[in-house]
Amino acid sequence: MNNRRKAYTEVYTILQDLNEEEHNKIPPKVIETLKLNRDTEYKYEIEPDIKLKEQQMLPETKAILFNIFRDYLSTQEQKQKIIKMQLEEQAKIEIKKQEKYNNNIFKENERKTIKIEQTALDTYSKKKWYRKVFEFIRSVLKIHK
Predict the structure, then answer these.
(1) How far apart are CA 140 and CA 10, in angstroms?
(2) SS3 sequence, 87-104?
(3) d(CA 66, CA 98)
(4) What DSSP designation does 126 have?
(5) What is the pLDDT of residue 37?
(6) What is the DSSP letter of 50?
(7) Which long-range contacts (CB under 8 A, 24 or more apart) does 37-42 make?
(8) In the chain, pLDDT over 90 holds for what percent of residues?
(9) In sequence order, which residues have a C-beta less than 8 Å from that of residue 13 and are 6 or more positions away?
(10) Where does the pLDDT of residue 145 fall: very low under 50, low under 70, confident under 90, or very high at 90 and above?
(11) What is the overall mean pLDDT for the chain?
């Protein structure tokens, strides 16, 4: 929670540094939400001689800035590329999840099957040899009756 409030402070500070045209593209409600929820005790300063992408900032700040750029500041072409990239990344994550969980499920089922087979073998081999012979003879006699 604390990092989120600090990230709001960083984002708010960065947005205040935008030129008026770009700043006006962002809905006032978004800026107001950042302002109200930021950590007022935390001081964040932008180094004027360093590019924005090289500034020190929290990962949460980068994520919020990315979403603001995608939703309000990007061109239509940039927005489509970003959305396509995000969908591809999400698909990769889903494939990894499926591989991880499906492999674990199959391994678990395989272990259970082996245990069941082993139990059946143990049960079968616990019968005395004369009991097996007796059951065989009885099964033969029932068939011929």
Answers:
(1) 87
(2) HHHHHHHHHHHHHHHHHH
(3) 28
(4) T
(5) 92
(6) S
(7) 37/4, 37/5, 37/8, 38/5, 38/6, 38/8, 38/9, 38/12, 39/2, 39/5, 39/6, 39/8, 39/9, 40/9, 42/5, 42/6, 42/9
(8) 23
(9) 44, 45, 46
(10) very low
(11) 80
| Contacts of 4 by beta carbon, 8 Å cutoff, 6+ apart | 37, 60
* H or E segment to which residue 49 belongs: none
Mean pLDDT over residues 84-97, rounded?
Answer: 85
From CA 71, how far away is CA 52, in angstroms rounded? 18
pLDDT band with cut points at 50, 70 and 90 for residue 41: very high
Task: Give the CA count within 13 Å in the CB-facing half-sphere of 32.
Answer: 3
- Report the distance separating Cα 101 and Cα 38, nearest Å: 39
Q: Give the model's pLDDT for residue 27.
A: 92
Output the CA angle 19-22-23, nearest 5 degrees: 80
The per-residue DSSP string of 52-99 comes to: GGGS---HHHHHHHHHHIIIIIS-HHHHHHHHHHHHHHHHHHHHHHHH
In 3-state terms, what secondary structure has residue 127? Answer: coil
Determine the straight-line distance between the first and last CA of the chain, rounded to whole angstroms: 82
Distance from C-alpha of 72 to C-alpha of 39, rounded to nearest angstrom: 24
